[in-house]
Automatic annotation (TrEMBL):
Protein name per the record: Capsular biosynthesis protein
Keywords tagged on the record: Cell membrane, Membrane, Transmembrane, Transmembrane helix
Protein topology in the membrane: Multi-pass membrane protein
Family: Belongs to the CpsC/CapA family.
Organism per entry: Neobacillus citreus
Residue intervals passing through the bilayer: 20-40, 174-195
Principal subcellular localisation of the protein: membrane
InterPro entries referenced in this protein's UniProt entry, alphabetically: Bact_polysacc_biosynth/exp (IPR050445), GNVR (IPR032807), LPS_length_determ_N (IPR003856)
Top-level lineage group: Bacteria
């Protein structure tokens, strides 16, 4: 026989385990907040923009084929920017104390579709260091690309700058706490239903009817010992008063 669970039973389970669900959600939010604010290192990002475009004089006009050539070169440039040929020089000139592989992990290079602008973004715990690396990478690339590919179509469009009060891009404590609340809530509900599923104790007559398949004819109420003693004492006092009244009459 299939056992079905009604919506009312689900709500009763949630109500019964509400304190557990709230506790798990609260603990998850607290842990996420503590880790985000006190244990995770803030990471800042600085970006510079490189324009891939052949320098023109007053006699030159817009050339569609040249633009398409520049666009096709951008993917190649994106790889070259993060290559040891560029990053080794950046490490040496800035004396960063790391190799090109480690620096490569800090740098992200990308461009919008059909755009001749390449964005070089650097992430670092120090916002000034991030801006310094981004600018130096752009400078070294502009200088070295002329020797690597024998072209002169790279210009620095915008340099990375450090704001007066920079904000880290990660971690995001509020977002982490919100995610932790959702995860904690889901975990709490799941644990509540799991505990209810493994709880095989008989709690009321409805459960007995489901188990044995016959109606319950009667039930025995639970008698509290203290209430039973009070009841006996009141009964004894009542009987004593009745005997006294009988003797007096």
């Amino acid at each position: 026989m299939e056992e079905t669970i009604s919506l009312k039973e689900l709500l009763e389970t949630l109500k019964k385990r509400l304190s557990l669900i709230v506790s798990i959600t609260f603990i998850a939010a607290i842990i996420s907040g503590v880790v985000s604010y006190f244990f995770l290192t803030p990471i800042y990002q600085a970006s510079t923009q490189i324009l891939v475009n052949q320098a023109k004089n007053d006699q030159q006009v817009y050339n569609y084929n040249e633009v398409q050539t520049n666009l096709q070169l951008i993917n190649t440039y994106n790889v070259i920017i993060k290559s040891p040929a560029i990053l080794d020089k950046v490490v040496d000139e800035l004396d960063l104390g790391m190799n090109a592989t480690k620096l490569n992990e800090k740098i992200t290079v990308g461009s919008e579709k059909d755009s001749q602008v390449v964005n070089v973004s650097v992430q670092d715990p120090n916002p000034k260091t991030a801006a310094l690396i981004a600018n130096k990478t752009a400078e070294v690339f502009k200088k070295e690309i002329a020797n690597i590919m024998n072209v002169n179509n790279v210009n620095i469009l915008a340099k990375a700058e450090v704001a007066e009060d920079p904000s880290p891009i990660k971690p995001r404590p509020l977002l982490n706490i919100a995610i932790a609340i959702v995860v904690g809530l889901m975990a709490g509900v799941g644990i509540a239903f799991l505990l209810e599923y493994f709880d095989t104790t008989v709690k009321d007559e409805q459960v007995i009817e489901k188990l044995i398949g016959v109606p319950v004819l009667g039930s025995i109420a639970t008698i509290d010992d203290e209430k039973l003693k009070d009841s006996k004492m009141r009964s004894a006092e009542r009987n004593a008063r009745l005997r006294g009244d009988t003797i007096g009459s």
